[in-house]
Specification:
single chain, 148 residues, mainly alpha, 2 domains, 7 helices, 0% strand
Length: 148
């Protein structure tokens, strides 16, 4: 099976995600609260997730399976809230491009560290000089974009 459809889907999702901070910022201005806008955005996402869950099946969703997951795993929801809320507050100030290039640069640094140390059950993949150079180039690009 080719990964091309997945790559294309990821590209489209990336394009759609790039609109999220601007749309949420409009909502925040309308209701005069970035925190309320964050809550509304996440509530809409939650409702949409419930619809998808209802249409696709619930998998192994039960109190027993949820109870077997370490509590720190649920911090992923906090990360999602920080991304949505951060986008609402930050993107209108520095622009969508600078916001996302900084987010991507941060993601690459975090992912490289997670790979290097084998965090969260990942296979350890050393931070090689080539990987490090690539990350430095992206971080430099983030700096250049944020200055322009």
């Amino acid at each position: 099976m080719t990964s091309l459809p997945y790559i294309a889907a990821a590209f489209v999702v990336g394009m759609l995600v790039s609109t999220q901070p601007a749309l949420n910022a409009i909502l925040a201005r309308a209701i005069a609260s970035p925190y309320a806008a964050t809550s509304i955005s996440i509530l809409v996402a939650f409702v949409c997730s419930l619809v998808v869950l209802a249409l696709t099946g619930r998998g192994e969703l039960s109190a027993q399976t949820l109870g077997s997951v370490p509590l720190w795993v649920f911090l992923a929801g906090v990360v999602g809230m920080l991304f949505v809320g951060g986008g609402i507050v930050i993107a209108p100030v520095i622009g969508a491009l600078a916001f996302f290039i900084c987010v991507v640069a941060g993601q690459l640094v975090g992912a490289a560290l997670a790979d290097h140390f084998g965090a969260f059950g990942l296979v350890e993949r050393a931070l090689t000089p080539q990987r490090g150079l690539g990350i430095v180039m992206v971080v430099a690009g983030a700096w250049i974009v944020s200055r322009g």
